[in-house]
Amino acid sequence: MDNALVIGGTRFIGRHLVSDLLENDYDVTIFNRGNHDNPFADDPRVQHVQGDRTDDEALRTAKLTVEPDAVFDCVAYKPREVATAVDTFTDVDAYVYISSGDAYETEEIPKREGVTELRDCSDEQATDDSHDSYGPRKAEGDRVVFEAASRGINAMSVRPCIVYGPHDYTERLDYWIDRVLNYDRIVVPGDGTNIWHRAYVEDVASAMRIVAEEGEAGESYNVGDRRLVTLEEMVDVIADAAGTDVEVVHAGERELAASGLEPSDFVLYRDYPHVLSTAKLADLGWESTPVEEAMRRSVEDHRESDRDGSEHDPGREAEQRVLSILDTL
Questions:
Q1: Pick from 116, 178, 155, 125: which is nearest to 306 by CA?
Q2: How far apart are alpha carbons 30 and 9 in whole angstroms?
Q3: Which residues contact 232 (CB under 8 A, 6 or more apart)?
Q4: 51-68 residues labelled b (16+ CB within 10 A) or e (exposed)
Q5: 145 and 178 share a domain?
Q6: Could you give the CA distance from residue 89 to residue 153 in angstroms, rounded to a whole number?
Q7: Taking the model in full, what pTM does it have?
Q8: Of the candidates 6, 99, 240, 253, which lies 20 to 30 Å from 51 by C-alpha distance?
Q9: Are 141 and 49 members of one domain?
Q10: What does the pLDDT look like over 58-89, one tens digit per residue?
Q11: Contact (Cβ atoms closer than 8 angstroms) between residue 275 and residue 110
């Protein structure tokens, strides 16, 4: 395979995927509406076909224009979009769909492909745009991939957990980086041992390419850092990457409630550990970036951006009240 079509390709995961494909000598075309700045606009190696992926005719036109060997679907959010794509690209060498670790229904450690149950998806959820239906929609997209493979289509999926790294427009990690860069004492809910598996974005990009090259039709592959860190360890890794020292202050539910907060107000906190097995992907030859290096690149990008994670801020004044309460205990 040497000719790739990336549906999406300009914002976050798709942007890193395009870079990874270029580094591995692919001819790359991106297909999107053009609503966001194209970081590859001045790169002659990257072609651009403009169109809406929800427009079936536009998708067919992209196929006829590019004649891709591999298709990477970064922006399929509804099952119908996946169904249209697999039927459009029936004869490609690989169609890779980005699913999500949120597609899993059962809470178990770790969550394994083909073993851990997926979420159900109702007809209403399949067409809904809300956050609550995101996991069910991704799970149904996986089932579309499985069915397509049963018809001989070389369709596969990757399931990343929480993705972080340069150009992350969600700003989830940016909240914690901003706290570390600006404060000496960082409030962490609970005892700091909460685990929500994360995946460095460049590793998600390389995983998609490797799955296209080495994966099996009808299979899904989890993607996540090979080394997991707790919430407190993540703060420490950020501090090391930033070259600073911080004090992590644990706050229980009672102390948080006294300031009108609860643990879930802190982004990347999760009561039950969310852990994905990545052994299946590793068996294809995939490797992940060491967490320390991934965080160094993330902090460097944060400093060069205008992102501060303020959308996720529970309020520094409330945190200060928590710190004052804890200081009196």
A1: 178
A2: 6
A3: 188, 192, 193, 248, 250
A4: bebeeeebbeebbeebeb
A5: no
A6: 8
A7: 0.97
A8: 99
A9: yes
A10: 999 999 999 999 999 999 999 999 999 999 99
A11: yes
